[in-house]
Design a protein that fits this description.
single chain; alpha+beta; 2 domains; five-stranded antiparallel sheet; 5 strands; membrane
């Protein structure tokens, strides 16, 4: 057997002929804030939420007046998204067809509505508009006119208090203008 205790091969070390340089950490000023820029945090968070699974998780289903509000959140986020549907009235499901289609797309029976909480709903995230639930889950029609009507109705529902206030103030101003015109 060969004796391995002594190697005849020499090991060569290569030395860097350039003078030693300061490391990047030593080159930074001491008063530099080591925090992360808020814009970088926001962009990274939006990209992570957008690319994670493109899904929202149903967290709560509740009644809001004559509507059903389905609250959802991203898998790893704290933002919430709410979809509103017409609630059943007068013992008939005809008024809540969109909600029934949402339940059907989610694979939940109207009799087992408790199973809706925790369901993942496909969605996309737009930095300007926020979360948007997939059209199959929103029961959106291909008709542009129906989509415009639904969007207008949703906008009116969202800003109903402001619209009422604007109508009251506008009516009072119109009344004052008529009085001034009559007696001027």
């Amino acid at each position: 057997m060969a004796d391995r205790s002594g190697d005849d091969a020499e090991t060569a070390t290569v030395e860097d002929p350039s003078p030693p340089r300061e490391t990047d950490a030593e080159a930074l000023p001491d008063d530099l804030d080591a925090g992360v820029d808020e814009d970088v945090k926001r962009r990274l968070r939006e990209a992570y939420l957008n690319d994670e699974e493109n899904a929202l998780i149903v967290t709560r289903v509740r009644s809001v007046g004559d509507r059903v509000a389905v609250e959802m959140r991203p898998p790893h986020g704290d933002a919430t998204h709410t979809e509103r549907f017409d609630a059943p009235r007068d013992g008939s499901l005809r008024e809540s067809e969109e909600f029934l289609e949402f339940l059907e797309a989610a694979g939940v029976s109207p009799l087992d509505i408790d199973e809706l909480v925790g369901t993942r709903v496909p969605a996309t995230y737009d930095p300007e508009a926020g979360w948007r639930v997939d059209a199959a889950y929103r029961a959106e029609s291909e008709s542009i006119g129906e989509n415009r009507f639904a969007a207008a109705r949703e906008w009116l529902w969202t800003y109903k208090a402001w619209l009422l206030a604007a109508l009251l103030v506008g009516g009072e101003l119109a009344f004052v203008a008529v009085i001034i015109l009559l007696y001027a």
